[in-house]
Amino acid sequence: MNILWLQASGCGGCTMSALCAEDPDFLDTLAGAGLAFLWHPALSLASGAEVLALLKSIECGETALDILAIEGAVARGPRGTGRFQMLSGTGRAMLDWVQALAPMAAHVVAVGSCAAYGGVTSAGGNPSDAVGLACEGAHPGGVLSASFRARAGLPVINIAGCPTHPGWVTETLMLLAAGRLGAEDLDPLGRPLFYAQHLVHHGCPKNEYYEYKASAVVLSDLGCMMEHLGCVGTQAVGDCNIRPWNGEGSCTRGGYPCIACTAPEFEEPRHPFTETPKVAGIPVGLPADMPKAWFMALASLSKAATPERIAKNATASRIEVLPTIRKPKDRR
Amino acid sequence: MSDAPRLVVGPFNRVEGDLEVQLEIAAGQVASARVNAPLFRGFERMLEGRDPRDALTLTPRICGICSISQSTAAAQALAAVAGAGPTPQGAAMAALIHAVENVSDHLFHFTLFFMPDFTRPCYSGRPWYLHAVERFAAMTGAAGRGAVEARARLMHILGLMAGKWPHTLAIQPGGVTRTPGPRDKLRIETGLRQFRRYLEAELFGGRLEDFVALATPEALAGWGRGDVGLFLEIAADTGLADLGRGTGRYLSFGAYSLAGAHGFAPGLWRAGARAPVDPGAIVEDLSHAWMLGPGAHPYEGITEPDQTMRAEAYSWCKAPRLGGETVEVGALARQVVDGHPLARSLAGGGVLARVAARLLEIARTQILMERWAAEIRPEAAFMAAVELPKDGRGAGLAEAARGALGHWIRIEGGRIAAYQIIAPTTWNFSPRDAAGQPGPLEAALVGAPVGPGDESPVSVQHIVRSFDPCMVCTVH
């Protein structure tokens, strides 16, 4: 399958992250699955007039396009013209190009939370009136209509994340190439289930602190960051702690909170990113699948039962109290 | 513009972000150039009214390639407001994290963005052509593939210490969020050894210390090994030394702010001498940018897009000037200001000077990273408490791979009242100012040869990419 990759209104970080793929690297992984770029802005030799000719050939149906991958939100401003992002050298807004090319593609893939939902590009007052391909935040309908289906029949596939994990991108593209990604493999927000069926909480090394509500108070403390430091890993989808980033990393492993970058509107949490909003001292955002009263009962019980080791380490920057070593049972 | 033949070059790829170059051609060369950043997002406006700490989450997302540079500038700006800063070991770890990003960016620029242009068919008759294709053909060349793999491995240091790359929250005003243990120190040192092996075997074809010891353009030209040697052979054959020469005015805010010192020193290089930088002399001119309001220092500046996109303007990029003058920023600027003899001997140069300075900086930064890794003291404090006041202002002045990066923040009532950013490419790719003075790239393009009927002149490609532009930072 061929891929046309365009960078709309974003930071380019999803491409930069994809190039962190390993064993094998990004290019080998795609090539091995029969995927090749018609053009990628960071990687292809072709520039200027050659690219314009390619885009026109796709637009008029002369070159069949298998996968259109868009990275970045699409600017609609000023005043609906899209002129906040012109595709350079073409005299046309990216908005116009995306709307012209999407119906020509067998599959349309939104790479990153900006392309999926608007993301950080639409933060604050959304100065450029940016929006996702098929969603405006969590609401269906972006620069493409909510009912948009690519030629092969799927809606826009939202590889949400800020940035995307290299595996999320390569595996989505490989599943498409293998004909093994259907509508049933996407969650209600269009995200591939293979990573969106997990929570960032799964495999978080701070799980024991979470179990006892032994909380970090400042960034660099070892404890759970849910109670004070804004961590929403118990609600955010992603397999970040199951298959880590850049070797052995993840946000929570790095000592800072999950901000649910795979979710629509994560850019506007309505509180400081690294501070948990509370009502009467109780965190507002509790795990989504649990009755609040149960959570509160369990939390107060586990807090009361917190071993000294966990309580002390939670507010330290390195392990201060070691696990107790039990002597082996006498074998005789 | 005049009646001279005009060329619009774009989409301009293998640069980070969106770039369009308009050229007037006369007598087979570029007579004048206008550089357009055709994207506006408005990060400065998004930050207004938010908790100041949110800048640490949002500003890295300005750019997926200079993400940690943005973190660094934001953290330093907040620290400046608080009148406090990181612990010495926290500052050193932040520097190490930042340096990993910077060498990665330099490596990608050379192997993936800059060198593939020499595999264009227009060079097929040159003696080095087949070698260039083997090493640097886009997406298939051996050098590019090797660089992708080496960078991914080097970035394990970021997985370990910064959680992930890009877009980390690990760098804070008081230090770093993760405290390394003895094992982490060893993993970092091991990763750096592996990266050195790659650099010495493939990129340089020799010891980094030997390359760093080169002091003259002649010694550089005689290096003759590795991909660096191939580049130097091509540079000599195609006249890259004189292509796209700069003004010789260079600005560096100083890279890697450590306790009482910088990894690479700050300064202004002007008329062949180094002087201190006066950040108070910076003014952003808006005469040719689609921005409203008067030109101003970033503490007073505003970002109000001109939705009419008035005809006399042509870019979303503002035009920063230092004491009324343009300055060039980047690896060449940093190395000239820091006083490296090779860089000093290349000052005022063109494509060759910019690319050679970047290679020099890869070697020097690797040596710095190894030193910082050896000096990690796992028992030390890596984070200090930094309390932000309800009101105040401060600046964070750092060096991204592509040059000087400044954040200026004003806090009122515990909220961001104003936030202004000047990114490296804002300096290098700025449009004209009210006096008609072109930006550094616009000036460097004048005189570039253009063949008859050539729609995407390769000389222009070389000059533009020699600056390693980051357009997404430019137009934050």
TrEMBL record, chain A:
Entry protein name: hydrogenase (acceptor)
Record-listed [3Fe-4S] cluster binding positions: 240, 258, 261
One Pfam match: NiFe_hyd_SSU_C
Catalytic activity field: H2 + A = AH2
Cofactor: [4Fe-4S] cluster; [3Fe-4S] cluster
Binding site for [4Fe-4S] cluster 1: 11, 14, 114, 162
Native source organism of the sequence: Rhodobacter maris
Protein EC: 1.12.99.6
Automatic annotation (TrEMBL), chain B:
Binding site for Ni(2+): 63, 66, 470
A GO-annotated cellular component: cell envelope
Keywords: Iron, Magnesium, Metal-binding, Nickel, Oxidoreductase
Cofactor(s) it depends on: Ni(2+); Fe cation
Domain of life: Bacteria
Binding, Mg(2+): 44, 421, 476
Name the record gives this protein: Hydrogenase large subunit
